Amino acid sequence: MKKIIKTVFAFSFIIYVFALVMLLFMGGRGFTFTDLSLLEYIKSSSNFVPFKTISTYIQAIFDGSMNADIPIKNLVGNLFMFLPMGIYLPFFIKKIKRVGRFSISMIVVLFFIEVIQIVTRRGSFDIDDFILNMLGALIGFVIWKTNFVQKLLR
């Protein structure tokens, strides 16, 4: 039974990573060819102010200043996009048993993804995306640590 679970996890992880790459790098946003240098592009398309986007979206939900689907999809999507990583990472990397190691690993992964998005101009660097992705991954890690999941894997 344990071998079947590992096989299913491995297969589902491959599908998850493929979907993640498609969402993050191929998600309908064409390459941005501009005359801007990389530094100018980073300045014009990045958000380094924590909770700026999040608070804008939350305010828009309450005051109706934009279609509610946009902020909800953005907030919930970023929150849940990395929730599975909170389960997969400690499953495949046995040294990641504690929240500290998990957090450091996820910070590295998320920072790497944000940098690739900005360098390839397939997105922007948004600290709020980083925060929501990290929170989602931590929720997944908490699910991973539950007795139910641990008993399932024994």
Please characterize this protein's 3D structure:
The protein has one domain (2-153). The protein has 154 residues and is mainly α. It is built from eight helices and no strands.
Q: State the helical fraction.
A: over 70%
Compute the number of structural domains. 1
| Radius of gyration, in angstroms, nearest whole number | 18 Å
Low-confidence stretches: none
Question: What structural category do the secondary elements indicate?
Answer: mainly alpha
Measured distance between first and last alpha carbons? 9 Å
What's the β-strand tally? 0
SS summary, helix count: 8
Oligomer: single chain
Major β-sheet, in short?
A: none
Listing every helix as H and every strand as E from the N terminus to the C terminus, the arrangement reads HHHHHHHH
Shape: globular
- Mean pLDDT reading: 90
Percent of residues in beta strands: under 5%
List keywords for this structure.
8 helices, 0% strand, 154 residues, 72% helix
Short structural summary:
This is VanZ family protein. This protein has 154 residues and is mainly α. Helices cover 72% and strands 0% of the residues.
